[in-house]
Amino acid sequence: VYSVAFSPDGQHIVTSSEDRTARVWCVATGESMALFLHKWAVTTASFSPDGGWVVTASEDRAARIWSLETGECTRTLEGHSSPVVEATFSGCWCPDATAQ
Fold first, then answer.
1. Quick one: which of 78, 31, 84 has its CA closest to 56?
2. What is the pTM of this model?
């Protein structure tokens, strides 16, 4: 496991791992609630300020944004020449890419 982060409400954690996955866990039960896959190791993962999204960074040279509601990757940020080692949400996250 490379990283662990709590959701804003403290009810979930997200882990990133060398096994190419990021997983969301329920703190109360320890149950895995979501699984996000990359091609290579996932170096970090974190929640959006509203807790509805997860951003992951990977040695596959991409960062991805995932919806917790659907489990789908909604955006892939590619084009880096080296592994992406850190990604986090900053300020206001707007899923439709508009500013608030």
1. 84
2. 0.88
User: Residues of 46-79 as b/e, b for ≥16 C-beta within 10 angstroms?
Assistant: bbbeeeebbbbbbbbbbbbbbbbeeeebeeeeee
| CA dist., res. 44 & res. 98, Å (int) | 25
Which element (helix H / strand E) includes 26?
strand 21-26
Tokens for 73?
A: 């990757």
Residues 6+ apart with CB under 8 A from 74: 53, 65, 66, 67, 95
pLDDT tens digits along 66-98: 999 999 999 999 988 999 999 988 766 566 654
Residues 85, 10: Cα–Cα separation, whole Å: 24
